[in-house]
Design goal:
CATH superfamily: Response regulator
CATH class: Alpha Beta
Largest sheet: 5 strands, parallel
CATH topology: Rossmann fold
Radius of gyration: 13 Å
Distance between the termini: 22 Å
Helix content: 40-55%
Number of domains: 1
Order of helices and strands: EHEHEHEHEH
Number of strands: 5
Shape: globular
CATH architecture: 3-Layer(aba) Sandwich
Strand order of the largest sheet: 2-1-3-4-5
Strand content: 15-25%
Length: 125
């Protein structure tokens, strides 16, 4: 199974995602700030990053830019996880370089499908 980094500042959302992924057999790394997320990504080079957009320090878009600037992380897919449900907001988020968008609140089957697809496909730098 894969190592997946979750960057999420909401405790309930973190627990839900952690529990779903752990049940599937994945190893989970957790960060509650964008800075910590970038640091953990560099240190552990996970197979997938799930990034909240609204974080207490730098936002998910800035954290993504820092992750993309690291050559060792070029092939790691990063999925945006956000409650921003307006189509124009989703388009702005995905056009900033995320590999996919997962809407909150999380629905288990579509969430697992998105995670599975990202892990299977990977990312071409």
């Amino acid at each position: 199974m894969a190592t997946i980094l979750i960057v999420e500042d909401n405790e309930k959302n973190m627990k839900l995602v952690r529990d779903i992924l752990a049940f599937q057999g994945h190893q989970v790394l957790e960060a509650v700030t964008g800075e910590d997320g970038v640091r953990l990504a560099v240190e552990h080079v996970p197979q997938l990053v799930l990034m909240d957009i609204q974080l207490p320090d730098i936002n998910g878009v800035e954290a993504l830019a820092r992750i993309r600037a690291e050559p060792a992380l070029a092939a790691v897919p990063v999925l945006a996880v956000s409650a921003s449900v307006m189509p124009d907001q989703q388009q702005r988020i995905t056009s900033s370089g995320f590999d996919a968008f997962i809407a909150k609140p999380i629905s288990v089957k579509p969430f697992l499908a998105a995670v599975g697809a990202a892990l299977a496909k990977g990312r071409t730098p």
